[in-house]
Amino acid sequence: ANAIGIATNSTTQPFQVGSGSTIVLVDNQGDLGIGTATVPTRLYVQGTSASNIVGLGTTNAATTLNFAAGNNFSLTLVGNITLSNPVGLTTGQSGIILIQQDSGGSRTVGFGSFWDFPSATAPTLSTGANALDCLTYFVRNSTSIITNSLIGIGTL
Q: Whole-model pTM above 0.85?
């Protein structure tokens, strides 16, 4: 991988690397723009962006996600689990958690106290063989994760 370092003594001029659609711009407030010469918010990407999916493999016990490792996660249930309170939370972070049943199905998921669901009721996830569900989340603060579920989105 190549790296670019930029140094300047000016605090009033933006830093710019590249031009056109390949521009990277840091303005004098420290806002970052990618693919744009205008930065309307702290981080702005002109075009698409993506984040990796942290694959956790199979689990059959208490599972603690490390939100510092990424925004999106996937895991396969081979036993009943508790999705414990995650570590590495950043207020404002959001993402998804893909939860798949193994070929046997019938696995259940409990949730730690940080997970806040609509009507304060955790969902009952799909239990069919190879069933796939998805949790969407938004970290409200260090002890509250607003969470919703997409149940029965298919099988893998």
A: no
